[in-house]
């Protein structure tokens, strides 16, 4: 039963993580909670890729549902066939969660898209991205967090918090899905486990 418990545990754990990623990505698309920035195309590129929605969100939710359902499967042959399906689901969830984590890290390091003062006047761009000979980035330089971006207000802190949360949670999802790949392989080899094997007392 150990394999079944692990499947259920991973499935239940992935659900709140997927919801967190969905919410973070939605908030990244609406800085200041104003949809006008999204309609005008003034949203950070990595947020518009929506990996928190389809990657660490809906695909991981589908995988979590399949994990919980498979943990209830009875019968040796049926269980092993389910383990093969869960192995494929786990690989898909791992790739989608890892892509979300990578995109979040990229969005975090590049900085937000915002309106800032250029030599030619106010313009939309990514002024905080690392540039050779200019600065190595804004993450460890808090003086760049305010005064550079004019609109949306506080977009630096907005992106910093949300991309950090989404990247961390999707990283945890990746670890769980990787562990579930090993669990599914064990399920294919060992079946449901040895808990059903009982030693009956010998009557004299």
Automatic annotation (TrEMBL):
The keyword Membrane applies. It is found in: Membrane. The chain crosses the membrane at residues 7-29, 49-67, 87-108, 160-190. Pfam families: L6_membrane. One of its GO terms (cellular component) is membrane. It comes from the Eukaryota. Keywords: Membrane, Transmembrane, Transmembrane helix. Its main location: membrane. The keyword Nucleotide-binding does not apply. It is a multi-pass membrane protein. Belongs to the L6 tetraspanin family. This is Transmembrane 4 L6 family member 5-like.
């Amino acid at each position: 039963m150990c394999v079944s418990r692990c499947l259920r545990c991973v499935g239940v754990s992935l659900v709140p993580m997927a919801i967190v990623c969905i919410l973070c990505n939605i908030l990244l698309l609406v800085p200041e909670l104003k949809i006008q920035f999204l309609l005008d195309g003034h949203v950070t590129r990595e947020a518009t890729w929506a990996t928190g929605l389809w990657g660490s969100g809906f695909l991981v939710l589908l995988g979590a549902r399949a994990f919980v359902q498979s943990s209830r499967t009875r019968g040796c042959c049926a269980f092993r066939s389910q383990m093969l399906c869960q192995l494929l689901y786990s690989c898909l969830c791992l790739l989608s969660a890892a892509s979300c984590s990578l995109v979040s890290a990229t969005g975090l390091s590049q900085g937000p898209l915002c309106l800032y003062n250029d030599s030619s006047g106010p313009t939309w761009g990514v002024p905080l991205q690392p540039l050779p000979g200019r600065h190595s980035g804004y993450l460890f330089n808090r003086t760049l967090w305010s005064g550079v971006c004019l609109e949306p207000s506080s977009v630096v802190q907005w992106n910093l918090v949300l991309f950090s949360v989404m990247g961390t949670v999707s990283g945890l999802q990746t670890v769980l899905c990787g562990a579930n790949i090993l669990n599914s392989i064990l399920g294919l080899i060992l079946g449901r486990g040895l808990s059903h094997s009982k030693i009956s007392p010998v009557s004299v």
